[in-house]
Amino acid sequence: MNDRRPDPGPEPDDAALRSVAARLGDRAADRVNAEAVARAVVERLRTAAVMPLARRVRRPGPAWLRLAAALVVLAGAGVVARRVIPGSDPAPRLVGDALTDLGAQQLTELLGSLDQTLTGPEAPASDGLDDLDAEQLERVLQALEG
Amino acid sequence: MSVESSNERMASPAPAAASDAALIAAWQAGDEGAATELVRRHTRALARFLAGAGAPEADLDDVVQDTFVRAFRGLERFRGQCRFRTWLLAIGANALRDLGRRAGRRAMVPLDGDVAAAGGDPHEETVAREAETRLAAGLRTLSPLQREVFLLRAQQGLDYGDIAVALDTTEGAARVHYHHAVKRLKEWLA
Predict the structure, then answer these.
(1) Which of A25, A41, A52 minimises the CB distance to B68?
(2) Is the ipTM here above 0.90?
(3) Are B47 and A28 an interchain contact pair (Cβ–Cβ within 8 Å)?
(4) Mean pLDDT of all residues in chain A?
């Protein structure tokens, strides 16, 4: 940055001003409780999801989002398996069709097991698939495939 | 409270002796306690600066909080170009300007008011407060940049290099702003 302003010369005689300025705001600051501010700030950071990357990655997302992601991956895995595995059923049923045959209790158990799978130590916890890289996606797929 | 339950609540108590840079790194690694310690450490200086710059006392707590939240949101942009406190004070100045715009006025705090603090000479205390009140009034006559430069230098004791980085100007410009501010304040107080 080019500074074209003229040199104002030596430091001004500002001792008196400085001594007053040094006290300025002291009483107002005395009334601010640093501990309370710290608690409030941390709470606001939590509420606004302002947190460092490391914490964001560890933080599990909403259950419905994880379940939806799992179902998408499951469906995708079914389609891939149908194309790749030789001798597989020429007209395999889609995962969605299979799910419609399950009762409410069975569905609940399935969703519960998927939820556990995604939050387990082997699978990366994430807010959604958008956050995952190729390697993490592959690990999710492997976990789902057992 | 057990150690375990305490740890669940707060990732790890950040040591008060840790440097700002270490606390920032700890926060970025996920340690919430580091953020708490940073806030504790800089709240008073920030509150003094904001009050001196004209934050109404009723809003002071909120502006202090807003400043910290903004700072943590933008922490990835802090590259150690100046001290963390300097950077924080510059964010505080912006937060205060925003408050003034929202309120449709120039946010200024009257620094008069209270009676003398216990333990001091009442006469000296009164004289000192009068001087502070007059200085606060004089600060209102300055441009925001002059006021900020003056406070960063005279109240916070920063050097021109740090001030220049914090306010995105040059060291020479900061020096000129300071000289103008001192000249005008002297005229005001004469």
Answers:
(1) A41
(2) no
(3) yes
(4) 67
